[in-house]
Amino acid sequence: MAGLRTVTEPAVEPITVIEAREHLRLDDDVDKSQVMSYIVAVREWAENYTGRHLISRSMQMYLDGASQKDTPLWEGMRTGVDVIDYQNFIEFDACPVQSVTSIKYYNDDDTENTWATSNYYVDTISQPAKIVLRTGGTFPTDLRPANGLEINFISGYGDNNTDVPEAIRVAMLQYMTFIYEHRGDYEKDIKEPAILRSLLQPYQTLRFGGHSYSKMFKSGIS
Q: Disulfide: which of 49, 91, 102, 114 matches 212 by Cβ 3.0-4.6 Å?
């Protein structure tokens, strides 16, 4: 089991201060820092809801090793060599993925090595994206027990706010209006507008049968 780490935060936000001011119809005396806090809050909300990164950022994904393939339920006994069969791909836990910068791996004494690009192909068309073994390619072996694989990559729709799908930006503006109008309210019956889900649901990243960190085994160890 491992996880994600943000190396470089996005340089801009999906919504500008001017857009936020105009949408909220704020007076000029409202502090810019207060407006930015709303923008950051709704961006994080949209990213958490959809499972997507909106603006480009540098990321690291750490894995303990390759995932074992699912095996059907076996009744009774069987004999033979005990061999673990691994999947031929690694699925990203971030979406969308633009590119992979490098993949490093560490052995038990923390020696760093770079996994040759000839071993894999980066499938950024699939959602979520995948790192797929090429014919004849092999996963690194004899990894340390935790965080043996380090995948460095760029995620997000692009460097500019205009690269973000407009439906997501509209949902952010709508949610910003909602939390601004209800600031200081603590009634339990206050509900988010239904239109927010309608705008964001097409962009939700759905995973069936677990996530990219399930059933992790150290590659090369049987």
A: 91
